[in-house]
Each structure stands twice: as C-alpha cells, then as structure tokens.
Model the fold of this input.
Amino acid sequence: MNERSVKWLKGTGSVLHRASQGARRMARNLCAAIAGTMDARRAGLAAFTLVASVPLAHGVQQCFSAAGTYGGLTVTQSGSGCGTFLTFGGITGVWLGDSNVSESCAFSLSPAVQGNTLKVTLTAHSCDGSTYCEEARFSLNGTHYAVAPADLVTPFGGGSLVQITGAGDIVEAPGGNSGGSGVVTFNSAPPSVSSILINHVITLGSAAGTIYQVCADDAGGVGPGATSTAIVSSLNPSLVGQTVTLTATVTGTTPTGTVQFLDGATNLGAPVALAGGIAALSTSVLGTGTHVITAVYGGDADDATSTSPPVSQVVNVIVAQTAAPVPTLTEWALVALALLVAAFGMLARRRG
Done:
C-alpha cells in the first residue's frame, strides 16, 4: 500500500471517529431531553395530585338570633321585630308576632356567607286556616326568596306540619295544633349572601307569634364572584359626527347594576343599566383621532367589579371631494396639432 492510500485511510478513519462521537452526543442529548420531559410530566402529575387531594375548607355552622360576633361572622340587626327572644321547642330565637302585629327583622352578615349554608329554624308557628294565621316570608340580599319543596324539612321538635304557599312563603298546615315548626334551607340562594330578612306577617285574626333562629357557615371571604367585561364598537373606524354604539357584555354570577363607559379617563355619558348582562351606549360626540374606550362594571352583591380591555376607536375627518380639472392644450400644442392635421390632409390628397 502506497503512502497516499495510507493517508486516505487515516483521514477516513478520523472522519468516521468524529461522526461516531457526534452520534453519541446526539443520543445522549435525546435521552436527556426525554428524561427531562418525563420528569416534567411526573412533576406535573404530582402537582395535580397534590392540588386535587387538598380538601376544601369549610366554615363552622353558627346559629344566632341576636346581633353579635359568632365565630368569624359579625351579625347586625334592624327592624321592628328585633330584640325580643324566647326559648321554646328546643331553640332560642327572635320572637316575632308576639304583639299580634306583622313584624320583621333583618340580619346583616359580615363577611358575606355562602348562600346554600343558610338555614332558618322556626317553631310555634300558628295557623288554623279559619280564625288566625301567621305567614313567614324570607328575602336574601333584598330579593324575595321563594321556598321550594326541596328547601323545607318538617316538622321540627315534634311540631305539626308547615306548608309552602303559592308565593313560596311558609304557613302552618290547616288543622294543626298551633305549634307548626320546620327548617328552611336556602338551596337555591345566591353564592354570596350578605343579608337575610325575616318578615312575619299576620294574615288572619290574632296569632301567637313564632320563634326564628338563623344559621350559616362562618367561613367568610366568599364575597362577590369574579366577573369579566368586554366591549365592542358598531363602527370602527368612524367619521366625525357619525353615531357609534358601544356595547359592553358582563359575565359573572347574575350580574346586575350599571356600566360606565370611558373615553380615556373621561366619562361617556351617565352609567348604563345592565339588561341580561348587556349595556349599550350610542354617541356621536367623538372628535377626530384615536379614542381609548373602556367599560367599567360597578358590581353588585354577587358580582365583583371589572374593567374591559381597551378598544381603540378611530374617528376620521370628513374629506371634501373636488372635481378633477379638464385637461387643456397650450398654444404651441394647438399649433402643432393644426400643422399635424394639415400634413395628414395633404398626404391624403396626394394619395387620392
């Protein structure tokens, strides 16, 4: 084998050796990447398992009939029926209707509680259906709550049955022993409840009154649920003086209240009431330029405030249209045109 062949073989061996080293490095990198991916997946699964296995915190059920602090819950009261209490049938509660008059008592709860943890126990409810009758009505967050069959557990403490009226209120079943009782659970209540009103109404004759005790979890911190607000423009870009309708859509628990539209930091008109989660404002006062439009939802008892992402509304100036000038010929161009016409005329006669 000559010297040139030896050199060629050595060079080829060196190339193959380097290629082999590169392949090994690629294999090591690939294995490391796969191992990293598997580790990330295992970590993700571990994190998911950890999160999924953490139990949700629950508050302690607190029962009250007077103003005060109960666990993590602060209760205040207002109304003509607050302040008189009685123990009977195994509970101590606020005594409404003892003077044979319609009375009410409102409980304000701070912080707000989770609605489906609320319950009201009532006893000594009187209604014979012919000579005397009392009726219990409930409101949550200022709105009448219609009691449903699934909300009512009766009787309580050996009392006679109570029943639900067509309006969703509570009366003792006719023919009872004037000692009706029951527990009302508010299964269809809003997620967040900050007030409960008990309205004790005498609908017939002179009744004997009823004891009411309210209970709720004191976990607190429920507060209004999160919302999101979005805004769209009916015409973008627009021209000065044109009417543009801005529509805001609010999503949340059951959003009510108003939306304020803003041009930068300036209010665009008055707040607009929500209807079905939508508020719309039409305006033609936007000047030339780009306007940063936002919509701010004010919130309610169950829904937190939120601000929409900004929308850039472009308003252009109206440009007047002018007629294009009719092109004209200069004097020299007219002379040249006349000479050209004359030349073509002479040429035509000669050919003729």
Observations:
- Residues 3-53 form the longest helix (51 residues).
- Residues 43 and 263 are 47 Å apart (CA to CA).
- The first strand starts at residue 61 and ends at 64.
